Protein: TetR family transcriptional regulator
Amino acid sequence: MGTVTAADRTPKQDRSRLTRQRLLEAAVTCLAAHGWAGSTVAVVAERAGVSRGAAQHHFPTREDLFTAAVEYVAEQRSGALRALFPDGARDRAAVVAALVDLFTGPLFKAALQLWAAAAHEELLRLRVTEIEARVGRETHRIAVELLGVDESVPGARETVQGLLDMARGLGLAAVLTDDTRRRQRVVNQWSALLDEALGGGPVVTEARS
Amino acid sequence: MGTVTAADRTPKQDRSRLTRQRLLEAAVTCLAAHGWAGSTVAVVAERAGVSRGAAQHHFPTREDLFTAAVEYVAEQRSGALRALFPDGARDRAAVVAALVDLFTGPLFKAALQLWAAAAHEELLRLRVTEIEARVGRETHRIAVELLGVDESVPGARETVQGLLDMARGLGLAAVLTDDTRRRQRVVNQWSALLDEALGGGPVVTEARS
Structure:
């Protein structure tokens, strides 16, 4: 490897990163559509247009691939959520709606399949529990920041936690049927409750540089 | 069958009802422990100590058995919830805690496995959606009654719906880890917020005869 120069190493690294990314995205789509029992490294590799060998180089086991996929997509969605409110949030209802959106769509459907499988597959349980803890902490942090919550106020932390539990429950309700209209009404009402609980009026958080 | 008298028909019906009940309860336990892929009529029959033929007489298909099981246990739990507050509820926090309890434990874990499978099995999806709608309506009715909610007040219906979504989300959080302490704090905080939203003070609903 001593003859590889920086100039030709970089495109290889780019290709490798791109392959990895395609595998992760295909894995989430596959898990959401077919469940854990129907999701293997081979199926994902084919969907991603990547050789099975290359897929196994990146992800030696099925558990590696699917847990990495759910975490990768969750991080992307968290980043996109922050980017929605670059100057801080002035409208709590908009923040609540955006938080609830985190729990609908293919990522949540994929995560649900992973949870369901982890409930009876020991190999998965520990991995999924770790990811859930990390992703959950990050989502809580974003919610506190965008909602302008002072967590030193007694109860404020649990108010936000309950809101995120509600968002997760709304996500579950949306897995089998289109629950959009009911969800919108619940989001409006709970946004109003939250505004009262946290102190009403528009929230202006610090602009993030 | 003309020679069968009422006297000997009744014990047979009792035995049949008992067999059915044992199958339904074993089905929920099996689904919670092994997921949809690991749950068949044969496995449940063995666990219930019932012959496979008898099991198939009661439930011709796997879908029949497991959807009936989740609905049966959900009805039992709803009945038990009403029985907890025979004279109406005076303490909203106790009602909220009892409602949240509906979404933890083996029934919720079994229902989650059914939802996860229904997301990619068309045969199941319609059946599970129907059951969910029925069980959901009944749970909402009980919540409104025990919380003493006047649904003609704008937003009251959505307040209760959001509470039940939160309960479902708390249930999901409890599938992989013991989340009891955090759940208790969230329940306390949202009970207080709900009390304010619905009009404070103890609730006295009509005693049910």
Notes: Chain B has one domain: 6-198.
